[in-house]
Amino acid sequence: MTTITAQAMKDRVGTETVSDWVEVTQDMIDRFAEATGDHQFIHIDPVAAAQTPFGGTIAHGFLTLSLMPLLSSKVPDAPQIEGARMGVNYGGNKVRFLTPVRSGSRVRGRFTLLAFDEKRPGQFQQTTNFVVEIEGQDKPALIAEWISQIFV
Fold first, then answer.
1. Of 105, 136, 96, nearest in space to 28 by CA
2. pTM over 0.85
3. How far apart are CA 68 and CA 131, in angstroms?
4. According to the model, what pLDDT value does residue 2 have?
């Protein structure tokens, strides 16, 4: 992990980082279904899902979106703000689910820092373009413009 100042982070606006690949397993999908109560067959029933245009089970869209923290933790040498005590989700400006993620697929995150501003002393707002790419696919699983806040 690389620690940088808030000013150095602001200077990184426009830069892109890419995570390592992560497999989306059926177990991960099943556990997400349990946690959210979304037991639609296209997620948890491989036999029934095989009869759909997806050809098998697919991850929930919200599971794919929720991989953001995991994928960001898989960015080699991702910069961290010096003195950061915590970060919180603030919301999204847009989220689009473009391609289903089949069980057993590998995905990675592509992060582009769009903005980094001090909202008040010790509180920074970061806007990031987040793309989930599926290995071997031209079209991404999702794109999102996400806002988080960092407290130092």
1. 105
2. yes
3. 9
4. 83
